[in-house]
Amino acid sequence: xxxxxxxxxxxxxxxxxIISFIRTLEKYxxxxxxxxxxxxxxxxxxxxxxxxxxxxxxxxxDLESMQSYINLIxxxxxxxxxxxxxxxxxxxxxxxxERAALEQMDVIVPLSDASIYTSVSDKKSxxxxxxxxxxxxxxxxxxxxxxxxxxxxxxxxxxxxNGSIYTPFLIFNKxxxxxxxxxxxxxxxxxxEYVEGDSKYLLYYFHRxxxxxxxxxxxxxxxxxxxxxxxxxxxxxxxxxxxLLYEHLFKEIGFFGLVMVExxxxxYGNYMIEANPRFWGPSQLFVDAGMNFFxxxxxxxxxxxxxxxxxxxxxxxxxxxxxxxxxxxDGGKLSFHKGDExxxxxxxxxxxxxxxxxxxxxxxIFKEGMR
Length: 371
Fold this sequence. Notes:
The strands form three sheets. Strands 10, 11, 12, 13, 14, 15 and 16 form a seven-stranded antiparallel sheet that branches. A five-stranded parallel sheet has the order 3-2-1-4-5, with helices on both faces. Strands 6-9-7-8 form a four-stranded antiparallel sheet, with helices on one face. The chain is globular. It has three domains: 5-110, Rossmann fold; 139-193, no CATH class; 198-369, ATP-grasp fold, B domain (D-amino Acid Aminotransferase, Chain A, domain 1). It has helices at residues 15-28, 63-77, 89-97, 99-104, 114-121, 123-132, 174-183, 243-253, 284-288, 293-300, 321-329, 341-346, 348-352, 363-369; strands at 5-10, 32-36, 52-55, 81-84, 107-108, 140-141, 151-155, 169-171, 189-193, 198-206, 212-222, 229-234, 257-266, 269-276, 317-319, 335-336. Helices cover 33% and strands 23% of the residues. The chain starts with a strand and ends with a helix. It has 371 residues and is α+β, with helices and mostly antiparallel strands. It contains 14 helices and 16 strands.
C-alpha cells in the first residue's frame, strides 16, 4: 500500500458516483480528504463526514483557492503528492486549464491531455470522430430551420461563446422549439434526430499501460428531460465486435482514463449519443457487478498493487429511489426506456434492495430522499 500521496475528493456534485468511489477507497484503506461544497453538502449525512477537511466558501474554482486547499491537506497528512479525483466535468476542465501550475504543486491530474479530453467530451467533435470511424450517429440537420420533431439540440462545446453551460434539449413540439430559440443562441448548438430505442452505456477504462477494461449497462428508467438514470441493469453490449471501433478510436487519439459512451439501440443499429470522460452517476452498478473501474484507475496511479479479475461480472441492478420519488412527488413523469410506471411500482420492493443509498454508510441520505 502506498502512503506517500493522498486522494482529494470534491464533494457536493455527482454525489452518487463519489459515494461509490469512496466505498472503493475504504475497501483498500486508501487515504483521502474531502473538500465539501458547503455546510449543506450531503456528504455530512454519510459515514465519511469525518474525512471532510475543508468547506468551500465559494463554488468558483480558481488557482489561488486550490493552492490553499492543497497546502492544507499536504500539511495535515505529511504527504507530497495529491491526486484529485476526476469527478465532474467542470472540475476536470479546470484541472486541464491549470494543469501546469497544479503539477508544480505536486498534484496528479488523472486525465488525458486537454486537446484529447475535449475532443471526446465536446459533443460535436466526438460525433465527428465517430463518424470518421464508421460509427453510427443520429441524422444531423443543417440548421434548426430544417429540423423535424422530435429532435435534439446539443451544445457544440461544453462552454458556449458567452461561457454558459447547457445539457442537450429534447424538443418535441413547436412550443418547446420556440422556447429554446428564445432562451438560447442556436449558433452554439447542432441538431440531430431523436433516436427511439433501448438506452445503453458502454463503459471503459483505458489504462496507461495499454490495457482496456470494459463493461456495459442497459438503462431502464430515467428522470425526464434527459436527466439522471434511476434504474439500470448489467448488459453484454461490450462483448460485441462493434465495440472494437470505439476501442480503436480511443487508442488512435491517445485517450486514457474513464469514459462512458451512451448508445441508443434501434432497429437500424446502435447510435452513438455522447461520451462522458469522467465519473458517471450509476457507478455503483459496476462496483456491485465486480467490474470496478475505480480499481483500474487506482491501479493506474499506484494506489493498489493489482487489478482484480474483470472476467466474471455479476448480474446486478442499479436503483436510485430518491431520484424516482422526487419526480413522482412533484407530479412529474419518469422516462421509461423499457417497461412502465406500473411495472416499476409493482416491483419497487425488489428495486429498493439494490438502491445506491439504502446502505449503512448513506442511510441518512436515503431517508431524506423518502420525504
